[in-house]
Amino acid sequence: MADCLFCKIAAGEIPSKKLFEDECLLAFYDIDPQAPVHFLVIPKRHIDSAAALKETDAELVGHIYTVIADLCRQLGVADSGYRVVTNVGEDGGQSVGHLHFHVLAGRSLAWPPG
Ligand code: AMP
Ligand code: ZN
Questions:
Q1: Is the entire prediction scored with pTM above 0.85?
Q2: Ligand 1 neighbourhood includes 108 CB (under 6 angstroms)
Q3: What structural domains does the chain harbor?
């Protein structure tokens, strides 16, 4: 999508602190971290949000969660735990309109969220 920040990051047009990349997704550190470990995982293909997912995206979403688990093991936070969050729409707190999964770890995270 022409004017999408995360499409530009996925295409390498805007730099990011990359953690992992394959043919369908990119993981990179959040520019404004909310925990000692805070990275984002995005599909390279533009999808507006989790609300726009289709049945045919099931494999992609499963792959994203598998990569998140692998990365958390590599970063040494799998045992202490982590949180995966995808914000949807205005009330959900979504500020970038390209599906992304926040991964937060490295401290005890409060529940419920604010
Ligand atoms: P959300 O508010 O759930 O849509 O999350 C968007 C996230 O993208 C926020 O946590 C921002 O800090 C993060 N963000 C915005 N611009 C960038 C960027 N250029 N590189 C990395 N993370 C970014
Ligand atoms: Zn996009």
A1: yes
A2: no
A3: 5-105 (3.30.428.10)
Using alpha carbons only, what angle is made at residue 64 by residues 16 and 21, rounded to the nearest 5 degrees?
A: 35
Q: For 27-76, what is each residue's pLDDT tens digit? A: 999 999 999 999 999 999 999 999 999 999 999 999 999 999 999 999 99
* Nearest atom within ligand 1 for CA of residue 14: 19
Q: In what order do the strands lie in the sheet with 18-21?
A: 18-21, 25-29, 37-43, 101-105, 82-85
